[in-house]
From TrEMBL:
Name this polypeptide is given: NADPH quinone oxidoreductase
Record key words, sorted: NADP
SMART domains tied to this protein: PKS_ER
Coiled-coil boundaries: none
Length: 322
């Protein structure tokens, strides 16, 4: 089968053996894949948790059809339209744990379905389960113009947030954030953004920040969060190391929580997918929660898809069809 593999000379489409499902695994005939920021690093040879390195089939988000079931797989049957996340997505066939997939709604095509699994699982966990958003609260999403950021704003609104603020350093994308749930859009590269947030919250700061940037905005986040507020750190687009004002953190009694899928067990991931199904799946099926597709590429043009992502001018998801 064809797959996009990282090798000694970089990533390229190669012929590899088709995998065989074992245990609770499902073999998926992939029809479309969503690109994610972590894919760009792995394409350059960087590890993502335990995954990566020479011989790795890249990709982590897909939509397709069940082709075969492992002996212990439950909940789906051959031919079902599904979408999910996991390794080795950029291929004609991939494997997925039966608890790490969703049924693709009948009113979505494969390209649309491939945009959702990572964003839904990541941001329902960050905004609702860990972030504990409540009706009437205020939420700031750092890095809001990414696919997962757009989903985070929509989930916050769905759960009754009174004020949703999104950040983007790009003027065009910042201007589009109100289309996806933002009441206010700020430029996190301008130090005055904290003052804008404080003004919008009556000087108190937001109840919750979901931070995909970290790095240079860490101390500004502390200043923009209300006393006894919460910061959920889900990314490091702004760098992995930065100065941190521990006194301000303590003075404002902020709960600062880190989340990632890289160190979660499969049991923990299954629970996250279950929570999405139980809590917000109706909004997915009704298309109340959805993501824009910026551009679709054929599998043979996957390098162009990555070049488009690395140009960092897209809004929403970049999709590759297989």
């Amino acid at each position: 089968m064809k797959a996009y593999v990282y090798g000694a000379d970089g990533a390229r489409i190669s012929d590899v053996a088709q995998p065989k499902p074992k245990g609770t695994q499902v073999l998926v005939r992939v029809r479309a894949c969503g690109l994610n920021r972590a894919d760009t690093g792995m394409r350059k040879g960087h590890a993502h948790g335990a995954a990566g390195g020479v011989g790795t089939v890249l990709g982590m988000e897909w939509a397709g059809e069940v082709a075969e079931l492992g002996p212990d797989a439950k909940g789906v049957k051959v031919g079902d339209r599904i979408m999910g996340s996991g390794g080795a997505a950029f291929a004609e066939y991939t494997l997925a744990d039966h608890g790490r997939l969703f049924r693709a709604p009948s009113n979505m095509n494969f390209e649309e379905a491939a945009t959702l699994p990572v964003a839904l699982a990541t941001m329902h966990n960050a905004v609702v389960t860990v972030g504990g958003v409540q009706p009437g609260q205020s939420v700031l999403i750092q890095g809001a113009s990414s696919g997962v950021g757009l989903m985070a704003m929509q989930i916050a609104k769905l759960k009754g947030a009174r004020l949703v603020i999104g950040s983007s350093t790009d003027a065009y994308r910042r201007g589009r954030l109100t289309d996806y749930g933002a009441d206010l859009a700020v430029d996190s590269s301008d130090s005055k953004w904290v003052d804008e947030v404080l003004k919008a919250t009556g000087g108190e700061g937001v109840d919750l920040i979901v931070d995909q940037v970290s790095g240079q905005v860490a101390n500004q986040n502390l200043a923009a969060t209300r006393i006894k507020g919460r910061i959920v750190n889900v990314g490091r687009l702004g760098g992995t190391h930065a100065d941190f004002n521990f006194d301000l953190h303590a003075a404002r009694r902020i709960s600062y929580i880190g989340v990632t899928f890289r160190t979660r067990t499969i049991e923990e991931v299954r629970e996250i997918f279950d929570e999405v199904r139980k809590d917000i799946w109706g909004a997915v099926e009704s298309r109340k929660l959805q993501l824009p597709i910026d551009k679709v590429y054929a599998f043979d043009d996957i390098d162009q898809a990555f070049a488009h992502m690395e140009a960092n001018k897209h809004l929403g998801k970049i999709v590759v069809t297989v």
